[in-house]
């Protein structure tokens, strides 16, 4: 069967990657069914008792940025996506004057670890300059940039933060990115679910009829080919191609991915502002407050980031979300027999729901340090909530979107590996992934070389650490 023939496609996962790909494949004429154990309603992707607010697709908001250092391909993909989000905002407002934007261009203040620009920031500004976008970036220490920020109405968000205990009374250098902001992720999923239904995508939701149980395989020429999947209710669903787009659960559904992907957890805490507190409500609104990111320490000699913390403006419900990404924690548990790749017989998987509401003390302390500097009103306020949010890390932070070569006849496709930065691409990711789905190495997307199956790439990005690494909180008291 040629790649351009109409195919029956079963996609496992109705999150960011699965929804985006489903829409694009359906629009190209394929017969697409999406399976997911959870539900959607008008407000978004709904967590169950077994998975309360566990993954990115159900989160209130996610940072939108096009700042990628030397990774020009992701910068350009993000800007392509930004245009699409703005068009969606207009569509929603045209239909309803009171509709909330799904992308909020509130700006992002990239606060440096010192009073100078980091090498990564210099690389980002160089790429912005290369693409003619330098005027969208405002360096706090540049009088020219501050003047331009005033002319364009961004001065209020070009915030200044003194470096604690600095004998010279310097402030952290910072760059305000006027292209950035955040997406309302769970509402975005609800929107794209509606788009998918209108396009003709069929959905099977629920802990039985929507929950993946196993691939249905047949032997061919000494290998194996997937011919469908079975759900927890025992029903068989035939398909020409099965797509695994299950985020941090992808390796558990398809252990063949275990070399390429690993589940890891970022730490998230919230405060809640009472609307009656008019001063705080106004100060932390998207109209007045940018996304703020801070690297509390420069990157190490190995290039690893150990100090990233961020905060987003308050939500309409009053939640202020702070996230710590400097260390993403792993949870190593014994892997099933026959798993193609393990480390000492173990692999990292999401913690059980009963265990991921508490934060490791290391990350809680990092968030508290950030709060003391950047959110002084909350310095002594207890967290409203905490949780670990599970990501799907790849070997190199690039997504894994390709056919799985351990299955014959291009019968299994993977669309995963968001590595904590996939949500922003939701409007455009599916078209690029569908190009790979139909055309493989002949696809025209510039993302093809970065998203390919890459078993020849060493395990990096922390995936090399294994169960003895410092990030592992598996089978330990959090």
Automatic annotation (TrEMBL):
Superkingdom, natural source: Eukaryota
Domain FAD dependent oxidoreductase: 8-435
GO molecular function terms noted in the UniProt entry: flavin adenine dinucleotide binding; sarcosine oxidase activity
Alphabetical list of InterPro entries matching this protein: FAD-dep_OxRdtase, FAD/NAD-bd_sf, MTOX
Cofactor(s) essential for the protein: FAD
Start and end residues of each stretch annotated as Disordered: 459-478
Cytoplasm listed as a keyword: no
Entry keyword Oxidoreductase: yes
Keywords in alphabetical order: FAD, Flavoprotein, Oxidoreductase
Family: Belongs to the MSOX/MTOX family.
PANTHER family hit by this protein: FAD DEPENDENT OXIDOREDUCTASE DOMAIN-CONTAINING PROTEIN, PEROXISOMAL SARCOSINE OXIDASE
Protein name: FAD dependent oxidoreductase domain-containing protein
Organism of origin: Purpureocillium takamizusanense
